[in-house]
Amino acid sequence: MFHRIKRIKPLPDYLLLAHFTTGERKCYDVKPLFAQIEPFKVLLTEKGLFERIHVDTGGYGIVWNADIDLSADEIWERGVSV
Fold it and tell me: Does domain 5-81 have CATH number 3.30.230.70?
């Protein structure tokens, strides 16, 4: 099943609050990705980039720039329900 994000909100401490089209909400911690995926490290150094996140067309993912994105399914599976 594909999950779709309706809205994404950046929170302090590199957390994301995802609002899914089903009405469910998940909190996702981006910090573990800094050690796992090289392009994510720029979120630590480029001021304001983390806050410039947006939902990709169709809601199947979220995007910061051409190199950094996450799928809605990743956030659904690893996020914590709130």
Answer: no
Name the token pair of 67: 């190199």
Supply 35's token pair: 């050690």
Give whole-number Cα distances, 76 to 12, 36, 44, in Å. 20, 19, 23
* Token representation of residue 28: 């996702």
In the block, residue with structure tokens 């490290």 = 41
Measured distance CA(25)–CA(6) in Å, rounded: 10
Averaged pLDDT in 10-residue chunks for the chain of 82 residues = 94 98 98 96 96 96 96 97 97
Quick check: pTM over 0.85? yes
Enter the tokens of residue 56.
């990709």
